[in-house]
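In response to the reviewer comment on reproducibility (Comment 2.3), we provide here a single inverse folding case reported in full, input and output, so that an independent group could reproduce the run without further information from us. The structure tokens appear first.
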């Protein structure tokens, strides 16, 4: 009887392990599919090519091969379009040398962490070592000093020179700092999570958010959430609203770019401009809506949050802000941003 019970427990543990492994494999496959898709989309845009064979011939001519009859074929790059095989770092480097204007980094150190959230400390240290001196200095600064920011804003951008970072640079910075603070300084870890959740809104012009379509943003945010979730599940920023906020930020930037020519050519100017929309002195309703919040757990807690800590948004305040964005005539220009095109399909 005991032996039978032991076998059942072992079988149950094996099924759980297999289920976990399948989820991990699926997570990796989804992330890699997005990586490849973004990389290819930007290359097609930058080169102006529309055909896979022509693109491969331009950037990787040795990948073409001839059959016994002398006909030229291409299979490697057609394989990439299936989003199953990630192009090697050697190839990605060669392509970047040919197209130095490429922004997306297919092999950025952040992908190692995003692909496998439970990476070891040694792996994290290796990724940190690959980053620039300024980036590592910023990480040391966050580790050594209080981190009081609870939202993305212009002072945050200036403090850590985020105007010269890519989204992946900034994501890796705050995520590694959050992991370091977890268990040591819970308030700092919580503050860093506030920033991580709203970080895409500062980088809506980054290839990740520009080249994935609107409905894909929701799914990609889901995958990022699997990488960086705190033990405090009360801290939230629902992906549906974050995806809408990304669309709103894009619209605001596009509207401003038409008036200010410098925004077309300067990524650092765009970063600062996007940060201004998220800063309190612009629009407090919009700032509340584009920040993470604590879910309602008790009336007393909600009242304390509303009355004593304006930087620490409650679910009530957050929902009221979103209601105003949807219904108040002052925000009528945002109406289209609440509509996901019916032609788009969730992956």
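Designed residues, in position order:
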């Amino acid at each position: 009887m005991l032996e039978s019970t032991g076998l059942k427990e072992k079988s149950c543990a094996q099924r759980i392990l297999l289920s976990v492994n399948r989820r991990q494999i699926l997570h990796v496959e989804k992330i890699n599919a997005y990586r490849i898709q973004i990389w290819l989309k930007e290359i097609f845009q930058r080169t102006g090519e529309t055909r896979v064979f022509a693109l491969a011939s331009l950037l990787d001519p040795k990948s073409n091969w001839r059959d016994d009859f002398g006909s030229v074929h291409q299979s490697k790059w057609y394989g990439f379009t299936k989003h199953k095989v990630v192009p090697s770092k050697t190839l990605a480097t060669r392509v970047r040398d040919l197209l130095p204007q490429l922004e997306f980094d297919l092999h950025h150190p952040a992908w190692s962490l995003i692909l496998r959230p439970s990476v070891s400390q040694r792996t994290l240290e290796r990724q940190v070592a690959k980053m620039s001196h300024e980036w590592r200095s910023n990480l040391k600064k966050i580790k050594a000093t209080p981190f009081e920011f609870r939202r993305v804003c212009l002072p945050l951008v200036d403090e850590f020179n985020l105007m010269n970072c890519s989204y992946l640079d900034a994501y890796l910075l705050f995520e590694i700092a959050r992991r370091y603070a977890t268990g040591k300084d819970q308030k700092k870890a919580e503050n860093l999570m506030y920033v991580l959740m709203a970080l895409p809104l500062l980088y809506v012009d980054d290839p990740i958010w520009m080249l994935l379509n609107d409905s894909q943003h929701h799914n990609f945010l889901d995958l990022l959430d699997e990488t960086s979730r705190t033990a405090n599940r009360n801290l939230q920023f629902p992906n549906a609203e974050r995806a809408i906020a990304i669309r709103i930020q894009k619209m605001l930037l596009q509207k401003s770019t038409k008036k200010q020519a410098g925004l077309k050519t300067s990524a650092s100017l765009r970063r600062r401009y996007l940060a201004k929309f998220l800063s309190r002195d612009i629009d407090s309703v919009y700032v509340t809506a584009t920040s993470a919040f604590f879910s309602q757990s008790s009336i007393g807690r909600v009242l304390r949050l509303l009355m004593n800590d304006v930087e620490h948004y409650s679910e009530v305040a957050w929902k009221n802000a979103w209601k105003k964005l949807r219904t108040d005539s002052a925000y009528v220009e945002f109406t289209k941003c609440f509509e996901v095109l019916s032609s788009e399909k969730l992956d």
